[in-house]
Amino acid sequence: MLIPRQKTPALSLPLLGGGQFDLASEVSERGTVICFYRGLHCPICATYLKEFEKRAADFAERGVNCIAISSDDEDRTRLMAEKVEAKNLRFAYDLPLNVAKDWGLYISTSRGTTSIGIEEPALFSEPGLFMVTPEQTLYYGSVQTMPFVRPHFSELVAALDFAIANNYPARGEYTGSV
After folding, report:
1. Taking the complete model, does pTM exceed 0.90, yes or no?
2. Which of 5, 50, 106, 123 is paired with 147 by a 20 to 30 Å CA distance?
3. What is d(CA 174, CA 3) in angstroms, rounded to the nearest whole number?
């Protein structure tokens, strides 16, 4: 389990369109929102990423970078980026599943072809949404065991406004005995 205010695992992946995403090298005023998604096979992910794309400018206005990441290969990632009509949202691909587990993501096995006619990979990670500070510490995290009922980006933007205005710290940091 990742702990707020503590350093997150390393994350370095190829970016769609060229280059490399390296969390340790990210430059932003307030951090990076990382959206781990299931992959091209997931219609719920496509809808979710469309909303993320719409909100990317809102995050940027607040000094926050955005990226969507999956274990899909470059071709499937390109198809997803095209499906969500990504213009502001960066996409990284080839997430190793052991790295997904380091981030606390759940791993699922394939059920074959999905409702939209796309084959699921043999193994893939379930969704997770994180906000990481510029110092690479966890500020916010949410992981899912299913593709359903995900945090809303509009609520995260509003929460970010509150956190900025009130210098609100990351919560859930206590690791002592209870």
Report:
1. yes
2. 5
3. 8
Q: Which two tokens stand for residue 155?
A: 């609520």
Output the furthest CA–CA distance in the chain (Å, rounded): 49
Q: Is the dihedral of CA 136, 139, 140, 145 positive or negative?
A: positive
| Range 98-105, long-range pairs (CB < 8 A, 24+ positions) | 99/9, 99/10, 99/11, 100/36, 100/71, 100/125, 102/9, 103/2, 103/8, 103/9, 103/11, 103/36, 103/128, 103/130, 104/1, 104/2, 104/128, 104/141, 104/143, 105/36, 105/143
Mean pLDDT by 10 residues, the chain (178 residues): 97 98 98 98 97 98 98 98 97 98 98 94 98 98 96 97 98 97
Asked if 107 and 101 count as a contact pair (C-beta separation under 8 A), the reply is yes
Dist. CA 54–CA 88, nearest whole Å: 8
CB atoms within 10 A of CB 30: 17
Query: What pLDDT score was predicted for residue 27?
Result: 97
Phi first, then psi: give them for residue 8, nearest 5 degrees.
-85, 165
* Structure confidence at residue 140 (pLDDT): 98
